[in-house]
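Bug report (template v2)

What were you trying to do?
Predict the complex of my protein with zinc ion.

What happened?
Run completed; filing so the output is reviewed.

Input:
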Amino acid sequence: MLTIVMYHYVRDIAGSPYPGIRGRTLGEFDGQLEYLSRHYVHVSLQDVMDAAGGRMTLPENAYHLTFDDGLSDHYRNVFPRLRERGIPASFYPPTQSALNSVVLEVHKIQFLLSVITDYGALANEIFSMAAAYRSEYEFPSEAGLRAQFVNIRSRFDPPEVVLVKRLLQTGLPGPVRTGVIGELFALHVTTDEAAFAHELYMTMEDMREMYKSGMEFGGHGYRHARMHGMKLDEQEFEIKKSRELMRMLHGREQPWVMNYPFGSYDEETVRLAQKYHAILGLTTKAELVHGFDRPLELERLDTNDLPLSGDAPISRWTAQVLV
Ligand SMILES: [Zn+2]
């Protein structure tokens, strides 16, 4: 049995310029590390790969921490804490933001949502911006799009936020989304994308330092796109670019781990990941890992599934692994 936990932002949220960003505060993160150290045993990504390959057996209460998106939070806030406690963890930067001074669309959307208070008005703004693209691209009417997303439930978002996210993530055609997201980001967040990217993401230098100190890295796509149903050649590009970053960080070709952006993948994604020598795949399915018969589809809990302090009562997930 293995508990893999997924993190994104770990920062002093209230004191930051974007208090609307959702993530773990430093105090909560410390509390979770304390909780984990009381009830679990940490294992490295290499241990997980070895266990999947039948070369070792993990303890029932093994856990491994994963940090998605290559955020500077992970270098500034997470790395020092893990190093101090001797906890190995793995980090998954998308290749595009690791190598270029661009803000990924997923993050443009998050920061946009963090500064917006009226999501209904934002949805209207999206529909009116998108309308300018109707002569060039074909897509459903406003009413059609609203109807399409009205019944989708999310673990963490209210319906108005789901509508906005879906429109910007999948609802509109790719080039329309890119155009609208770019316009909204410049209008509501910043016009200096390069400076914003520099502040938001770890640099290659940061990553190399972490890697030298025993932290591990895996792939998270090129531009952080949903892979499920994506055209084959585009999927292949995303996977190849993920491996390329791994090769740059590792300094050589070696088995690696693919972490599917948004937890979105299909059979082709798995096949392509294997073709390019990924030996594990991480999803966002909230469950414990019960075995390695599908190593390219490992389940992960979200940080929100863990208690926030060391002395918290044990959670239902922890109860399953304590013998
Ligand atoms: Zn991600």
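What did the reviewer find?
The radius of gyration is 20 Å. Strands lie at 2-7, 41-42, 62-68, 89-92, 216-217, 256-259, 278-282, 301-302.
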